[in-house]
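Schema walk-through. Below, the input block comes first and the output block second. Nothing else is stored per chain. Lengths vary across the set, and this one has 517 residues.
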Amino acid sequence: MTEVVESEETKNHKWVVGWPLATIVFGISLLVLGTVFWSTYSDIVTIWWRAETYAHGFLILPIVAYLIWQKRTELACVTPRPAPKAVLLMVFPALLWLLGYAAQVAVVEQLAVVAMLPVIVWVIFGSDVVRRIMFPLAYLFFAVPMGDFLVGPLQDVTAAFTVWAVQLTGIPVYWEGRFFYIPSGSFEVAEACSGIRYLIASLALGTLYAYLTYTSLKRRLIFIALSAVVPIAANGARAYGIVIMADLSGYTLAVGVDHIIYGWLFFGVVIFLLFWLGSFFREEPASVHGKGAASVDMDAISGGIPTIMTFAIWAGLATSLVISAPGFAAWMDARSAAALATDVKLPLGHGEWSGPFDTGTQWNPSFVGAQEHRAEYRKAGQSVQNYPAYYPSQNKDAELVNWHNVVFDDKQSRRMGGGVTQAHLSAERNWPVLVTSLESEGRTRLVWYWYEVDGSATVSRVWAKAYAARSRLVGGRSGSAAWVISTEYSMDAEEAAVLMEDFLTTMLPQLRGAISQ
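--- output ---
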């Protein structure tokens, strides 16, 4: 009996054939995902193009490609093999996308479609390949344009740091929210001064630098943490510098566009110093055997190369699983299209409160895509303005919770403060409300508001989105609304709060019932 021995040439041929087959199937899978989720992927690119904060997204794919190319010698030593267990992981980005769609949270949809890419790589190329390119695949998530939720907190941190630093300098400061005043002038910590651009850019660069410079996980994590902390502190120092430069120069320096240019120059110097200091702790990467020709692991291919049909079957299962989410979303929308009321009517006054009356106030909330109403309720010479923004249904252009939606026009009014408080309606009952205090031409206004989604009330933007997702998934019968009430006051905000509490005590059931039809 003659034993047939497989030659080295035949084994190498098996390895060579494996990569092209997997790559062809991978390309087809990407085409399918890109077609089905085109709207979400195109939204990501649009944000890169329009928002300077996320312009670094254009660099992420080239960086990932370069990092994978650096691993070509290691990858040449393994054979791609489908990973059936990874198919089940596609359930998670599919559900995440569906939840994001149901709640109309674009960033969740975008996270989901980016998460699909590492999973499909794992399904098609297998665990041995993914293990070697884990960081480049994880780095893809920097392509997701997220971080806007940090703008407000960063503004507050910057304002607090700047006021503290100016006080240390010996300059008297009067501080109101994100506004502060020194003897020579006034300053506002606007959104552009929050430092979100510096933070996101620093994290993206710092994470890449840590990966390329260090080998130990501990040093990498420490440097990434510094990449987050340093730009926040540096932005506070930048804001302080702007105040001092403006004060000393009679407001001829560091004002207008000058402070933006100064900010980027300052940030560049800070990041350079951070990377320069980090270089002193550099770790040499472990040498990769054979930087020239690949050393093929023959044991890995001794069992044969998967056929293109094998690759296609597992890739097809994974893509079929994930593209079922848009199909369910379409059915969900069709089911609820005609189920909701088309409008909301303001309730009649109750008890000692009369109305609704036309209001002549200049206070001007705005909720994009909503059916808006403005009215006034009166009691004993006092009045409360009521503004419901009603959404029969929500979509990308009409969302209850959206950064475009505001309870005041910042060109007409100045925000003095805000937060969450409890309106005392009775001894046993409190009603949580979001609070904003405004000032305009010497007149002050107290604003309270909350969200109402399919019968559930909340002051949390997160819970409002969660309720919206639940409503769409289970076929809710009520629309969504933001109830915004306000009143002007001259001296005492507590008196205004008492008036608003009296109004809610009497009118809250009627207000909520107006959208529970």
